[in-house]
Amino acid sequence: MALGAAERPAYLERTCGADAELRREVESLLRSHEQADGFLQAPPAELIAASFATLPAANLVGRRIGVYQILEEIGRGGMGEVYRAVRADGQYDKQVAIKVVRVGWNSTVLFERFRQERQILASLEHPNIARLYDGGTDESGLPYLVMELIEGERIDAYCDRLALSIDARLRLFGRVCDAVQYAHQRLVIHRDIKPGNILVTADGVPKLLDFGLAKFLQADEQLMDPTLFRPLTPAYASPEQVRGETLTTASDVYSLGVVLYELLTGCSPYRTATRTSLEISQAVAQTEPRRPSAALAAAAPDSPGLSAAEAAQTISRARASSPSRLRRQLTGDLDSIVLTALRKEPQRRYGSVQQFAQDIERHLQGLPVLAIRGRWRYQVGKFMVRNKTVVAATAAVIVALVGGILVSMHQARVAQTERARAEARFSDIRKLANSLIFDVNDAMADTPGNTAVRKMLLDRAVEYLDKLSKDAEGQPDLQSELAWGYQRLAAVQGSTTESSLGDAKAALLSNRKALAHFEATASADPRNVADQLNVAMMYRILSFGSLAREEGRQELERALAITRRLLAANPNNVKVKNELSIEYQDIGFVQDAIGNRAAALPAYRANRDLKLEIIRADPGNTAAARGIGMATVILGDAQGRLGMLDDAMASIHDGIARYQALPKGMDDVHIARELAVSRVKYADVLLMRGEIAAAQAAFHEARRTVEPLARQDPKNILLQDDVAWLDYHDGKIELLLGHYAPARLRLQRALARFEQLHGPPSGVDETADAEGTIQLWLGDAYGKARDWPSALQGYQRAIKVLGTAPDADTDDDTRCRLALGYVRSARALTALRRLPQAQQAAARGLDIIAPSLIPAYQDVPALYVAAEAYARRAQALAVQATGAPAGGRAALEDERRALLGKSLDVWRRIPNATPLVTTSLFEAFDPVRAATPE
To answer: Which region among 58-62, 292-296, 561-565 has the lowest average model confidence (pLDDT)?
Structure first.
């Protein structure tokens, strides 16, 4: 066929020789080829697609389909056109995308596929998948879909325009994987994943489009004869898709691999002389892709007009990198991840898109990836890079153990006595236990995701020491080591201030054991300051979980007595000063708990000032530097509660700045978490000032810190609670902005998180106060929408939950919220015209809050509640008066004015009263609004 017609006879004469039958067969084939007129020079599917693409468009611009007016054509594909349209029935303004089938070749088959696409889209609701709004046929029988209009650009163009780094591209791609995995879980494969079907909106949200080629995994494969019509985009199709074989989710994995390859390298995985569909399909089916790290070296053919060096520079610059650095970034993990997704055999690729995405996430976190499994040196190297401190500590443990073993062997060789060997074993076990408690545990505390492992190590270490202590009574140093083991174990079990598993009962038991051992050590040498200080520390730790109760205050008094005695004898001892500063902080918590806010403030100041004194004397004391940050934030929170908003802003801002100035690598997880908590406190003060947008930004900043830590350490209950609280704060913001439905959704999500973590609230559940707070805000969300039955239900649930809280009778914040539940339910009952019950509820709220209204206490949150309680009673009387006979109306009006006067008198006692929010986390009600019925 490559020869001209005049050259063929001589060639056949030479080649066929005397074999006349062979020559006749070849000539027959040549004639058939000429008669076919080039038909087989392109695949049938390509010919069909080419002819179908020439069919005239429907030209629907200006027409109306359903309730939508067509504005313009915005795209066309194999099945039809896509138009921009606007809702035209006057109900509301909304622009949409409308897709219609082009009438032409084999319309019956295409209509069936179109109906299948509508069914697929209707089953998918995901933030990264374009949504289906409506669908049907118009008056002429033309099928159409009404879809979400995505204003965005192709994912590759978006990444290049913003010059996104490799890590940023991987994170964006991970969200696309989430969408595809979501579809796979609903038995849908896309079959046409490519950059043109992934648009990124202006705010950076990727959207997966065009399920026109998708199918349900259980759908009938005979919808179209694959030998006649096999729709695909060759450059992104999998080898089995090119060959017309049965498709599975592995095909989408392959297509995603091609997209990721191009996002990372700016090149196609395959080098072809031309870009025809046939040649690309052959490369996909037969050629192994280049490693991504090697793609830059051959980038010029994909970048016309540029040399290889210029193309590599352009591609690297679009990835915020240089050619050499980009090659290093792609070498190793990313080479293996991408090539695993691009394997020719479906069974050798990633088993799911989720597994693909998880490998990318593991790479981003510096963890070993599945694509390089089985290489022990690689696994060890990854671990060592990720956990340098832990590896060093573990190496110390191993060295200690090996040293102990060598000593034992030497002793055995020289035939030492059994007693000597026992003593050596005793020493080895003790060294191991202490290394686990102090070296390994403390090193691992800085790394997220280790909480459960730390507990396991500490359990084992304490078990070792416990056994040793039974055989070695009278050894104070061993008792002290065991005490520290129990104290660190308690922190991991159930600390409320650092990473823990949330088991408060187990933590209490361990802390009691720690105290007993510390006391035994201290009694052996009453003059040892460190031993005495450890006893004070344990009393203070034990008091923290019950500061609102008498037993907690007694334990704090014991701690104070010891520390003050030690400070009198050792006025310059930094450790004693630090312990006393923490005890001052807890004194502030006690005063807050009983409602004496005025007395709490000087205690918080004393805590901060003592820490400042420590750091002035010892500028290199990083622990004190960290402590100043939280002490200053706690002081600011107390100032905000008393209405000192400017002082509160300044204090919390100072605390945040101190956290940010701490050196990197210093207890990073806990510092990051405390910084996030500080931003939440800052946001609450901003809300008191009415700066809702700024507060929302502060909450979001805190979420960006906490959520990654919580994902990395799912067993860490403290971090999981933090995420639930941030959901609550989001709901609070939505409510203050007047977005009642979104507010309810976020508050309900927060409630669900708390119940998932702790179970339903009960009489011994310390999360009851948190869940009661959320129920109060849910009641407000329904009330603002005038759904009073639902609002009342929310308030009643809050009352039930808060009433069962362990500190309902002793903790002032809990008491304020419980009283508020009754007061807000009075508002709902008034709206429902259940006036006697409304009066009773408001009166009950006043009874609960009465102990907190002592003028000297300056209990500002309680004043807000009392003012509202009187106002709600006045509102109920105002409604009652409207239906009362003339004779009784005057008496009701007099009583209403008296109650309103009491409300205003209480309101005037509030310093710098704000009608928005107090730091006790409830919305304030200005009694002036109660002058007329709502």
So the answer is: 58-62
- Chain centroid to Cα 453, Å, comes to 22
CA dihedral 512, 518, 522, 528 (to 10 degrees): -140
Find the mean pLDDT for residues 66-76. Answer: 88
320-343 tens-digit pLDDT? 999 989 999 999 899 999 999 999
What residues pair up with 206 in beta bridges, in sequence order?
A: 200
* Token couple for 871: 């106002």
Q: What does the alpha-carbon distance between residue 421 and residue 651 come to, in Å, rounded to a whole number? A: 60
Scanning 620-667, the segments in alpha helix (DSSP H) are 622-641, 645-660
> Cα separation of 324 and 761, whole Å?
58
| Phi/psi-derived region of residue 366, left when phi > 0, alpha when psi is between -120 and 50, beta in every other case | left
43 exposure class (CB count in 10 Å sphere: 0-12, 13-18, 19+): middle
DSSP structure class, residue 923: E
3-state DSSP call for residue 682?
A: helix
What is the tens place of the pLDDT at every residue in 165-210?
A: 999 999 999 999 999 998 887 778 888 899 999 999 988 999 998 7
Q: What residue ranges in 195-342 does DSSP mark as E strands?
A: 198-201, 206-208, 215-216
Tell me the one-letter amino acid at 751.
L
SS3 content of the chain, % helix, strand, coil (to 5): 65, 5, 25
Calpha distance 333→315 (Å, rounded): 20
* Terminal CA-CA length for the chain: 92
Find, among 329, 347, 210, 355, the residue nearest to 263 by Cα: 329
Whose tokens are 């002290």? That residue is 480
d(CA 54, CA 303): 30
**Rounded alpha-carbon distances, angstroms, from residue 662 to 470, 616, 678, 682, 765:** 43, 16, 15, 19, 36
Is 687 within 8 Å of 917 (Cβ atoms)? yes
Q: Give CA–CA dist 842/664, Å, rounded.
A: 52
922: β partners? 918
The whole-number average pLDDT for the span 697-719 is 88
What is the DSSP track for 398-424? HHHHHHHHHHHHHHHHTT--HHHHHHH
Helices and strands, counts by H and E, the chain: 37, 13
Residues whose CB falls within 8 Å of the CB of residue 828, separated by 6 or more in sequence, listed in order: 779, 783, 788, 789, 791, 792, 795
Q: Which two tokens stand for residue 723?
A: 């995420």
When mean pLDDT is compared across 8-22, 39-53, 355-369, 791-805, the lowest value belongs to 39-53
∠ at Cα 121 (118, 124), nearest 5°? 155
Beta bridge partners of 85: 70, 96
| Angle (CA) 925 931 933, round 5° | 90
Q: Is there a contact between 102 and 55 (Cβ–Cβ < 8 Å)?
A: yes
* Beta carbons of 510 and 458 less than 8 angstroms apart: no
User: Looking at the predicted structure, is the pLDDT value of residue 141 above 60?
Assistant: yes
Nearest to 755 by CA among 765, 746, 763: 765
Q: Which tokens hold the place of 75?
A: 């795209």
Tokens 């520290």, located at residue: 484
Distance CA 77, CA 81 (A): 6
Q: Give strand pairing partners of 216.
A: 188
pTM strictly above 0.85? no
Helix (H, G, I), strand (E, B) or coil at 915: coil
What is the CA 566 to chain-centroid distance, rounded? 46
Compute the distance between CA of residue 314 and CA of residue 301 in angstroms, rounded to an integer.
13
At 419-443, the pLDDT tens digits run 444 444 545 555 555 555 555 455 4
Q: How far apart are CA 584 and CA 559, in angstroms?
A: 11
Burial class of residue 756, CB neighbours in 10 A (0-12, 13-18, 19+): exposed
State which amino acid sits at residue 818.
Answer: L
pLDDT tens by residue, 512-524: 888 887 888 888 7
Please, are residues 862 and 892 in contact by the beta-carbon 8 Å criterion? no
